[in-house]
Amino acid sequence: MRRLLLFCAFLIPALLWAQDDSKYLAGAVPEENGKVVFSKEIKVNAFSKDQIFDVMLNWAQGRFKGDITRVVYSDKNTGDIAAVGKEYIVFQNNALSLDRSLMSYRVMIKCADSECTLKMYAIRYEYVVSYKREPEKYAAEEWITDDFSLNKDKTKLYRGSKKFRIKTIDFVNDMFKEATSALGTAAVEEVPSASQKVNPAAPTVKKEPASTEKSKTITKEGYRTIEAANLTISQTGLMAESAVQVSPKKNSALKESSVVWKGVGSMFGKYIASVVMNPGSEVFRQIGNGDSYSISFFAKDKMDEAWMIIECQKAGETAEGDQKVIAGEILKVFVK
After folding, report:
1. Domain identity same for 64 and 171
2. In this model, does residue 198 exceed pLDDT 70?
């Protein structure tokens, strides 16, 4: 029995490590002028450089904090933020062993109107080997690039540097996702090219001529009208904190409050508002294909009057567990 337990202890980690390596093969570690440089461009429609800078500096100061890992430079005039990091990437951590490497790196953030670019570079590793007094040291350029990590046919990762390459790519992807999330619902990923796959879970938005309703002049007493493109980061932040109601246009007296706000984004050049609803609700049933409806936002202590109302025309829906995500093209936005 003891031998069997020892066998399983070594076999199970090996089985867990077996994975689909396709996303880590050729091209997964980009280079610029012979240096490893991971980069990400995030589009933030209709937001100024200063607005984006404030959000990204706040995120960076929360993400890179400590004596070593920290923000080392920021300039609002140029939109530049720089940080240095030094932290562990863990390959395996169980009762038998802890396998990890200390990784140092630099991050540069460049903010501009409607976009920001992040770059991670100058990656170095310090890896402790039990039989050596000093840790082994590697530079990304000589350890995780295609030339050093892949076989001649670029179809397989070499065993020695494989775990470094995989964990570094995962680390960078997670960091870029955090930055995108920090910019909130205004952040829009790059539009995929025709050769890229479309996420089948995403709401389907029909490419049709502009709605006749959209061309009408819509006004609402006591509110000022703004375009979706002019929503500010502070407004989108307040929307996430507000109580939400959805009401079909053809029966405005009917309201649904058990709604989860998903945010505002861009799809096929249109501004889209998304909410999660119970498909069994009467409001959901009355918002048929292409029908119009409103999304109202209330301060938690002022449920008698909405501070913002978004008029939408349903563009598509998709499942989220036993709920439904409704995506609607924004026709008009009214703000108190």
Report:
1. yes
2. no
